[in-house]
């Protein structure tokens, strides 16, 4: 056991370290939001190369974002890739945005939900990017599986 004076010193140090960590974490959250706003502003101004730079810097932190911010991130990343002509990346990130945002398009502007659906449909092979793709899916063997057919295969 430490003497009483030593306990007070250790308690003060612990409180000091906890305070410093809290400030760093809050600062990190603020920086994340600021960077996201910069990416969104560049996208809105049709400066897609600039937007891509911001979004690439944010990508390692995507898992730390709240759901709404993550949906916006994936949407912006996908639409930026689309505007820059990278169709594969566009489809990948827009599909992630659709999954994160859910049916209500949480975190997305209303017009973004419409643009996302339209763009996924355009980019998906055979136009399979719309609502129908959530109901019908291809198995790894290529057979068509209907979600309401309880496992029976339709060819």
Give structural notes:
By secondary structure, the chain is mainly α. Strands 1-2-3 form a three-stranded antiparallel beta sheet. The protein is elongated, with a radius of gyration of 22 Å. It is built from six helices and three strands. The chain starts with a helix and ends with a strand. The model is unreliable at about 20-25 and about 130-155 (pLDDT under 50).
**CATH C-level:** Mainly Alpha
Q: Please, what is the CATH homologous superfamily? A: Tetratricopeptide repeat domain
Helix/strand order: HHHHHHEEE
Q: Average pLDDT across residues?
A: 78
By CATH, the architecture is named: Alpha Horseshoe
Structural class: mainly alpha
- The helix fraction, in percent, is 55-70%
Number of helical segments with 4 or more residues: 6
Radius of gyration: 22 Å
Strand content: 5-15%
Supply the number of structural domains. Answer: 1
The largest beta-sheet arranges its strands as: 1-2-3
Query: What fold name stands as the CATH topology?
Result: Serine Threonine Protein Phosphatase 5, Tetratricopeptide repeat
Low-pLDDT residue intervals, each spanning 5 or more residues: 21-27, 131-155
Task: Describe the main β-sheet briefly.
Answer: 3 strands, antiparallel
Q: Which descriptor suits the 3D outline?
A: elongated
> For the terminal residues, how far apart are their CA atoms?
74 Å
Number of strands: 3
């Amino acid at each position: 056991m430490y003497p009483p004076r030593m306990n007070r010193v250790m308690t003060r140090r612990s409180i000091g370290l906890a305070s410093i960590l809290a400030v760093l974490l809050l600062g990190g959250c603020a920086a994340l939001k600021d960077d996201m706003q910069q990416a969104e502003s560049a996208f809105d101004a049709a400066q897609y190369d600039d937007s891509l730079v911001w979004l690439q810097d944010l990508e390692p932190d995507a898992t730390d974002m709240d759901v709404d911010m993550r949906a916006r991130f994936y949407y912006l990343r996908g639409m930026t890739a689309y505007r820059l002509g990278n169709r594969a990346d566009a489809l990948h990130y827009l599909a992630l945005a659709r999954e994160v945002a859910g049916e209500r398009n949480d975190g997305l502007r209303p017009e973004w939900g419409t643009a996302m659906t339209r763009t996924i449909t355009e980019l998906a092979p055979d136009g399979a990017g719309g609502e129908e793709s959530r109901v019908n899916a291809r198995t790894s063997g290529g057979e068509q599986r209907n979600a309401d057919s309880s496992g029976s295969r339709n060819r």
